[in-house]
Design goal:
The chain is built from three helices and no strands. The chain has helices spanning 2-6, 9-42, 53-83. Helix 2 packs antiparallel against helix 3. It is elongated and about 55 Å long.
């Protein structure tokens, strides 16, 4: 991450912005995967796979989204504290 090299406010804001964009794409990808899982449950999938595969795909995809959104919210909270509440970052942040 550029923020770890430069450690400036501008690089951190840039990091959070780019990370947010990539998480938006992750949400789109999650929608695509869950749509395919839904089609599999409905018997409309044109692909063949083991019976457990849709459950595995849905579980893994949802866990990925939860973890990534949690990380994103951590960064948003840091920005909120810095710019809305006016708190200075602790040493090492």
């Amino acid at each position: 991450s550029a923020y770890l090299v430069l450690r400036t406010e501008q690089s951190y804001i840039g990091f959070v912005s780019l990370y947010s964009l990539t998480r938006l794409y992750l949400l789109y990808w999650c929608y695509e995967v869950l749509s395919q899982v839904w089609n599999a449950f409905q018997g409309k999938s044109k692909h063949t796979f083991p019976d457990w595969a849709p459950y595995c795909a849905a579980t893994l995809q949802l866990l990925l989204v939860i973890v990534n959104i949690t990380f994103l919210m951590t960064h948003y909270r840091k920005l909120w504290k810095r710019y809305v509440k006016g708190e200075m970052p602790k040493k090492g942040e």
